[in-house]
Amino acid sequence: MGAHGKAALRRMTGAALYTGLAVFALLQLFPLLWLVDFSLVRSGELFGPRILEIPHPVQWINFFRAWHDGHIPQYFLNSVIIVGGSVVGATVLSFCAAYATSRMVWKLRVAVYNVMLLGMIIPIHTTLLPNFVWFRLFGLYDTRIGLMIPYVAFNLAFNTLMFSGVMRGLPRSIEESAYLDGAGMPVLLAMVVAPMVVPGIVTVTIMTFLSGWNEFIMANTFLATESLRTLPFAVIRFAGEYSSDYAVQFACMTLVAVPPIVLYFLFNRWIMAGVTAGAVKG
To answer: What is the pLDDT of residues 34-59, one digit of tens each?
Structure first.
């Protein structure tokens, strides 16, 4: 095959690759497009013959009802408080655990690391009843801190794995220099190690945020007071026993999906860098 033939083959291969990626991206974006589309129509139009419906007229009232009747501002504030506290707790604890098991030398570090990773195979549903009993016993049921605890616990295993993969590739000479300069452990972690694992911190933060922001099962189990409920509860406010207002539910889901989408586009580069570093060095 001549040079022209190889060049043509490369162009065809590149075109096929980009076409496949474009189709894959469209398939990934279609559910979001479908969600936004049917949040702007009447509820009855969801059951029409077309996959997508051109809103005519556009039903902005769905978003107004979702915002007002769905208690979006109140639930949003609760989600920010609960998920924000969970993100801080899970990130700090997993960062310290990863450093202890990947950078420090002590007898049981491998055993402790493996035990922590077992948390990744424990289903959420198996812990609901025992946690419910313990939380009622210790007065944590129907409190924000009672929901933060399982959010932090269920993210520790993955976050520790991610941080460990990033930390194993760090040069020890920098830490040794900090020790010689008199830096204690808090200063070493905050001023030396943390800046070197910023992509991992961003990745762990976003992943923990997403898992808590969209979570409903534990929130529905451990929260009973209306004033403490989180954003996913806004959707079920429009679900009746015999019928549901689907258009307003879709509007609620669209509003709930906006913050994660914004965060993903803002920190996409950091997330990819953190995941790649953890996968390659882990």
So the answer is: 888 888 888 777 777 777 878 888 88
